[in-house]
Amino acid sequence: MVALSDVKRWNTGQLDEIFRTVQQRLQILTHSGDDFGKVMPVEGWAGPSADTAGSAHHSLMSRIDKMAAGASVVAKAIGQAADAITGVQHAITNAEALAGKYGYRIAQDGTVTDTFPAGQAPPDIHPEDRARIRTQIADSITQALRTADDIDADLASVLKRAQEGDFGTGDETTVTAAAADGARDPGLTLPEPPPNATPSQTAAWWNSLSPAGQAILLHDRPGALGAMDGIPADVRDKANRTVFTQQYDDLKHQRDDLQHRMDNLNQSDPTEQTEYFDLERQRDSLNGKLTGMDQINDRLANPLPGQPHAYLLGINPQKSGQAIIAIGNPDTAANVATYVPGTTAGINDGMATDINRSDAMVQAAQRSGSPSTSVITWAGYDAPQTLVDAASTSYADHAESSLRRFQDGLGATHQPGEVNTTIIGHSYGTTVVGQTARDLGLPADNMVMVASPGVGVQHAGDLHLDGVPADQVGQHIYSTKAPTDPIPALTNFDNPAADKIDPLGPDPTTAWFGGQTFQSNSTNPLSSHGDYWLPRSDSLRSMGNVIAGGRP
């Protein structure tokens, strides 16, 4: 592996000069070679001497062909290397700046050591933020050296192949064609992210690439980039908007194909009824997804006056559909909240409701003094679609790793500095949030549980928030339920002994749970389960206060 000191000394200016020189020499070689290619055969010249001259000419043209193609590839690779090194050195410079700010030193082997006495940071640097930054620094240096190795090895390979004459068309009559063929060679390849990369490692990989390299990947692999936790929000948004268009068109084609097949069946014919109604169910499901995607697109493309920009951080129409939409940029906001909806969440005609709730919470946080806010609708799991399904913990079980990874990705891409993070669950979404905090922990300052059927633990102390001491977690858990909401009443027993047999766990608003509570208004029982985000409601005001870094 190349040393950190070597990479810092790499001189892109020298590579740029070499690139220009090779290009100039290649141009001379191409023009001269094409002229030389026209020398033979000479009209009217035949015999042994002509044959000898022709053979020599053929041999020289073969060498020129390989030289021109090789020089063309070398020039391209050197230009790519100069561009790629800029990205690597930029990543190292940023890592060193962070290290200096947060009291770390980067050794030549890439290890990160503490410079503060006894590891005690000044009071203005939050320990949790500092620990996160240390991981980012270490991952950034590791990836920068990994990318530098890749550049070094790729360039050496191209130079070796050019020296050995591996490039060329085999057509010795035109040197221009040989140079063009060499230019079509990929030259250097972009490094792949580390296998099984963490979001922090993914962020380090992305930041080690040059802007040109990033643009190539954004064009060639939008689906992969859009799904990667650790990629900046604006990049994921661009990638996923491309994916969104492709997926929307695919769903329309599938729907139209089903409709065509239905049109060719006789609904009243008993022998065709089963197939007809099966196709009808599939068509209606696709129509629901298309409606949900229309609602997503409406918020992305047509924000109301004063509404923040929306970012599409994830989209997947498979099964019940998954979507992640951020209102405001989570990479730059001082206060970031992730809202996890519950039963029936997915890409369907209820998508606008969940997005509107995020918009409402952004506005509530602003009224509570938040200088900049991002609230994310995280429908990034396969949610239960019926109340019967919602009695099972399996949906939450499968969502845990995705939610934890997403939250880690937010931390990896957020600009340096403190950020107040809140995770809000509604209904079954509180089960997802609770189980994730129980089993994997969550990098969050606060949790808000709205209309919870249970959060998977018997006591707030069984939940784990990164950086919050275990004996203080209960002070950061806020729960509410409306007096007229039937869902908590149906799913909780308000009895410590009975709650132990509840598969989802006890009501977190009970006194023995050990968390904090806030009030919600009484509304119509038929709608109260979704009324927590009504304008001017006590519950929305309290959620805004918590998101803004205060208390309900």
Show the helix and strand layout.
Blueprint: H1 4-9, H2 12-37, H3 48-102, E1 104-106, E2 112-114, H4 127-163, H5 175-184, H6 199-207, H7 211-220, H8 222-226, H9 233-263, H10 270-301, E3 310-316, E4 322-327, E5 335-340, H11 351-367, E6 373-379, H12 394-413, E7 420-426, H13 428-439, E8 446-450, E9 477-480, H14 486-491, H15 496-499, E10 516-517, H16 538-547
Parallel strand pairs: 5-6, 5-7, 7-8, 8-9, 9-10
Antiparallel strand pairs: 1-2, 3-4, 4-6
Pfam family, one: Abhydrolase_8
InterPro entries: AB_hydrolase_fold (IPR029058), DUF1023 (IPR010427)
Keywords: Hydrolase
Sheet of most strands: 8 strands, mixed
The largest sheet has its strands arranged as: 3-4-6-5-7-8-9-10
| CATH architecture descriptor text of the largest domain | 3-Layer(aba) Sandwich
Domain count: 2
Give the low-confidence spans.
Answer: none
Radius of gyration: 31 Å
Class inferred from helices and paired strands = alpha/beta
> End-to-end distance, in Å?
53 Å
Overall average residue pLDDT: 91
Estimate the global geometry from the Cα principal axes: flat
Could you spell the SSE succession in H and E letters?
A: HHHEEHHHHHHHEEEHEHEHEEHHEH
Strand content: 5-15%
Percentage of residues in helical conformation: 40-55%
Number of helices: 16
Q: Tally of extended strands? A: 10
Protein model, in words:
The protein has 16 helices and 10 strands. It is of the alpha/beta class and about 550 residues long. The chain folds into 2 domains: about 5-190 and about 200-215, no CATH class; about 300-545, Alpha/Beta hydrolase fold, catalytic domain (Rossmann fold), CATH 3.40.50.1820. The strands form 2 sheets. Strands 3-4-6-5-7-8-9-10 form an 8-stranded mixed sheet. The protein has a two-stranded antiparallel sheet with strand order 1-2. A hairpin with a 5-residue loop joins strand 3 (about 310-315) and strand 4. Helix 2 (about 10-35) runs antiparallel to helix 3 and helix 9 packs antiparallel against helix 10 (about 270-300). The radius of gyration is 31 Å and the shape is flat. InterPro entries: AB_hydrolase_fold, DUF1023. One of its GO terms (molecular function) is hydrolase activity. Keywords: Hydrolase.
